[in-house]
Amino acid sequence: MTVLIFDIETIPDVNAGRQLHDLEGLSDEETAKALFALRRAKVGHDFLPHYLQQVIAISLVIASPSQLKVWSLGDEQSSEAELIQRFFTGIDKHTPTLVSWNGSGFDLPVLHYRALLHGIQAPTYWETGEQQQTFRWNNYLNRFHYRHLDLMDVLAAYQNKAFAPLDDIATLLGFPGKMGMSGDKVWAEYLAGNLKGIRDYCETDVLNTYCVYLRFELMRGVINQAEYAHQLQRLRDYLKNEQNNSHLLSFCNLITRNSPF
Q: How far apart are CA 60 and CA 56, in angstroms?
């Protein structure tokens, strides 16, 4: 089985904001401030709706018996459309099990709206049994199917009041958690030109999700204690070889230091 753990990072879609709220003539930073102010006045916080979130990074961990890899799609010059197209093309090609933390609540709805905006086709992702019979009973869209496993949703027993932050759960389990950045700093880092730092941060987030996923698989008996230890060691070995990626080496060192189990 191929498992694809994913995470996205977003910024305000200032172009859409100008179009929807008649904000022409404002800079990107001024437009975002106006959007935040409008949002606060409407709902009491400045977290923008999903359709006004522009994707600037998609990071992945792919894990199968023959492969383990962490990376971010495209490069720092890639357009949003290219990043999203690559994501859904990979699903069409490999039909992996998707794993996320709050993917049902944030990442996937954002990707849906942005794919709609860019006219991106994703037939396998949207399949619910019309063309492939097996997808009737297990597809990416149903909340209670494991073809997409939203760990936050499942661990909370699908109760919103029981949701937990990835950083807290990863840290409690002995994994690195957040490393030098958080989602609320992404816009400021983007304005400062630090897209590489954002992509690196997204990769450490998706690694935290993968580590929590391994513990989840141990808890539900899919793997045993020896297999769990083997998969963590496999991850450490992979990360040790990423000599040109200091954020991955730092993540590796923190796993080794905390040594879960």
A: 14
DSSP line for 212-248: HHHHHHHHTTSS-HHHHHHHHHHHHHHHHT-TT-HHH
Q: Which pLDDT belongs to residue 102?
A: 97
pLDDT band at 156, cuts 50/70/90? Answer: very high
Q: What is the pTM of this model?
A: 0.95
What pLDDT was estimated at residue 182? Answer: 77
- Kindly report, residue by residue over 30-57, the tens digit of the pLDDT: 999 999 999 999 999 999 999 999 999 9
CATH numbers and ranges of domains, the chain: 3-258 (3.30.420.10)
Q: Which element (helix H / strand E) includes 51?
A: none
Q: Are 167 and 179 in contact (CB under 8 A)?
A: no
Lookup result for tokens 């720092």: 76
User: 151 with 164: CB under 8 angstroms?
Assistant: no
Question: Taking 70 as the threshold, does the pLDDT of residue 258 lie above it?
Answer: no
Token code pair at residue 119: 């006219």
Distance (Å, whole) CA 160 – CA 148? 18
Count Cβ atoms below 10 Å from residue 182 Cβ, excluding itself: 12
Query: In angstroms, how far apart are the furthest CA atoms of the chain?
Result: 60
pLDDT band at 195 (very low <50, low <70, confident <90, very high): very high
DSSP β-bridge partners for residue 53: 12
